[in-house]
Amino acid sequence: MKKTNGFANHMSERPERALVTGASSGIGREIARILASQGTNLVICARRQTELEELANELNEKHGTESQIIISDLSTEEGVNQLIKEAGEVDILVNNAGFGTSGKHTNVDIDRQLQMIDLNIRGLTQLSHAYANKMKRGNRILNVASVAGFIPIPSMAVYAATKAYVLSFSRSLHAELKKDGISVTALCPGYVPSGFQEVAGIDQSRIGSFGSTSAEATARSAVRAMRNSRREVVAGWINKPFPLILRTAPIRMQLFVSKLLMESN
Question: What digits encode the pLDDT tens for the residues 26-74?
Fold first, then answer.
């Protein structure tokens, strides 16, 4: 028997439906699990089919929810267009897909850095625009930014800049859509043990224990903040003072601290 959906769309009485990008691992996977536990049907998107199929089967067995799987590369315009076409109508958009690189800007492959900009910024912006234009009162957008968005980070210069964009964009979109009854929330996690660090080429020995928050705990904070229509949330109690401290710290101090954390890479 299918689980009753506590977040049904009252206009159509259909079950709530959420699109989660980057759902094959990490924070995205945990957000999908939490939403399914709330009775939300899902569209889960990533490039890895096996992991998505395993997640869809898990959610169906545990919660009786439906999961549509879409394999797409969201760093390309074609991939984003494909997702929008195949996903159809959703009540919640979770822009989680993204990756980072580490190393001196001039030493890191430029094509890889441009691909990161395309995914972290262009893809997120295109999806937000497409779905915000279709959404109804009570619908929601959750964009995954980072505490890196609050500070310049030598050795992760482009990644930090992309997350600064996501944070600023989300704040502005929150204000623009509030009158329409559509909430936009920016999630700002700190260090989350996941495959992100391996892809980015980050040595975890220096930062692995500092400010660490599990993907599951981060996802719980994200969904709770989104449900409460909050503008942004910093995940992990140890990370919460971070934005306030940075507002008063001179840039040279911000650069010193971030460089210290990254110098082992």
Answer: 999 999 999 999 999 999 999 999 999 999 999 999 999 999 999 999 9
Sign of CA dihedral 81, 45, 203, 223: positive
Residue with tokens 């623009």, as numbered in its chain: 176
pLDDT of residue 9: 58
3-state secondary structure labels for all residues of the chain = CCCCCCCCCCCCCCCCEEEEECCCCHHHHHHHHHHHHCCCEEEEEECCHHHHHHHHHHHHHHHCCCEEEEECCCCCHHHHHHHHHHHCCCCEEEECCCCCCCCCHHHCCHHHHHHHHHHHHHHHHHHHHHHHCCCCCCCEEEEECCHHHHCCCCCCHHHHHHHHHHHHHHHHHHHHHHHHCCEEEEEECCCCCCCHHHHHCCCHHHHCCCCCCCHHHHHHHHHHHHHCCCCEEECCHHHCCHHHHHHHCCHHHHHHHHHHHHCCC
- CB neighbours of residue 199 within 10 Å: 12
pLDDT < 50 stretches in the chain: 1-4, 10-11, 195-202, 204-208, 264-265
How many C-beta atoms lie closer than 10 Å to residue 248's C-beta?
Answer: 7
Question: What pLDDT is stored for residue 50 in this prediction?
Answer: 97
The 10 Å Cβ neighbour count of residue 113 is 18
pLDDT, residue 248, reads 78
Active site residues per annotation: 159
pLDDT at 241: 66
Q: What is the pLDDT of residue 262?
A: 62
The residue count for the chain: 265
